[in-house]
Structures are given as C-alpha cells and as structure tokens.
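Model it.
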Amino acid sequence: MAEQLLSVGIDIGTSTTQFVLSRLTLENRANPFSVPRVAIAQREVLYRSGIHFTPLLSETVIDAAGVRAIVAEEYRASGFDKGDIATGAVIITGETARKENAQEVLRALSEFAGDFVVATAGPDLESVLAARGAGADVYAKEHHTDVLNFDIGGGTSNLALYSHGELLRTGCLDVGGRLVKLDEAGTVAYVSPVVRKLAEQGRIPALRPGERASPETFTPLLSVLTGALEQAAGLGPGRELLEALLTQGTRWEPPRKPPVCSFSGGVAACMDQPPASWRAFGDIGPLLGQAVAGAFQGVPRRQGTETIRATVVGAGSHATEL
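Modeled.
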C-alpha cells in the first residue's frame, strides 16, 4: 500500500531564499514475505514560492527574523499548515553558510520543517541536491552517459559528477554571481574576499567599492571564473585556476573524458535568456551566465530541468531519500 507524505524544502542561499512543498509517494517494493523495502515512487511539487533576496543585516550576519518572516508568509500563501509537514530539509547554502549566525537561522526555522528534517549546510549535500533537482542523475541514466552538473549560485558553484545515473564525486568552487555587487548606477558596492584574493595573486586587476563599472570592467574576472569551471570539467589546460578557486576543505579531480555539462542555479538561468540589463540583479550574475555560455559553446551541454530552483526542489523532493 502506498503512503503519502508532505515534504518541505527551504534553501537560504547567497542570493536568494526559496521554499517548495512536495508530495512524496512511498511504496513497499518487497514481496509480502520479505523485509520491507520502502522507496519513493513519485514526487510532485505542490507549491513553489517566489524568489526572495536573502535578507542580511550586514555582510557577515543573516537577518534571521527577515528569513523567518519570508517562510511564514510563504506557508500562509501555500494553503498548507506547518503541522501537515512530515519531512524535508532546511539548508543554508553557498557563502551564506559561512555567516556568523547561520545556526541561529536554522533554529529560527526549525518549527516550520516537520519532525524528520535535515538541517545542514555542506557542499557535498548541496551538490547532490542541486544535481538531482536539475535532473542530472536521471539524464545520465537514461542516456547512458556521464553528466557533470554545475549549480552556479551567488557565492559558489556546486559540482556533482554522475556516470550512468551513479554519483561518482562532488566538489565546490568559489565561483558565483554575487562575488561582486553593484548599486543601481552600476558602481561597485561590494567585492568578496575571493575576488580580492585573485587580485592579490595578480590574476585580475583590483576591483574596489565606489568604482564605476561597465561590462568590460569584469572581463578579466569572468575569464578566471569560467576558466576554473572549464578546468573542473577537464576542458581547459592545467588546473591552476581550479586550485585557486576550490572552496576551502574541498577537493576535485576533473573527469578524464569531458562529460555532458549540465547547468543549474541562478546564473544558469541567465545563460540562454539573459535579462534586458546586465546589472538587473545588482551583481555580475548575468555577465557570468553569458561568459559561461560562451566558454562551453560547442561542448555537449544541457540546462537543468530546474535552474534557479534546483537546490530547493532537491531539498524538498530528494533529501528524505538521501
């Protein structure tokens, strides 16, 4: 007999905070005389929130009350009660996971997430959730091939390599669309430590808050960021950019044979359909999306079945199984 559970996914990312509700159908696939073997037979997304900018009190502190208010309002709009939720995941991803009060934010949201929730922030799990939310695992299995999913967000890019549907490895690079933020006039408002370090290493010219910028201002930085992604896929020569941008505490070995490259995350949404203005989101995300599209032109690639919502859909639909 099948059983149904309501699952929540809440993703507090570098750029955005999102929320989804899914219905999971569980089935016992063992024969009547065997030990039960329960599997998730079907996943259906019932509600997708709007895409909210993650509220911050400063560059190092998340606005916990602001995030809680977003989630409470989305619950109200969904028509579901938090008491209906049986499982799911609250995850803090990307650069947001490094904020001073990340654990405080998780505690503030714990009442919204059911009794069997995963509350975590780590590049390995993020990579798998994003790849599965983007359908990279299914594509690799159905097409009998290798697929490398790049989930390119605001502060980091999570990597997951699948071979014929089986996960081989995960990784994370400090490559994202909000490494540099802009004000409405196109002036540089924020430069991340990652970008400052690249300048100190002499890889790019220094970028400073208050500097007036044009798309050409970021050409050297975009070249380094896309070069690291290419090296991660085994497409670019060497691995010096890959090593320079590996997230601290992570490792990555490029595949020997270039795989199908799959893209998800907010930057992926800008690859084939960029916004009208390059500074539409107050960051370099649209420029990075176009640079990645150009760098991977001619390479077998697919856009994820989910892009900006890949991680939160993975959290809401796949965290229980994982």
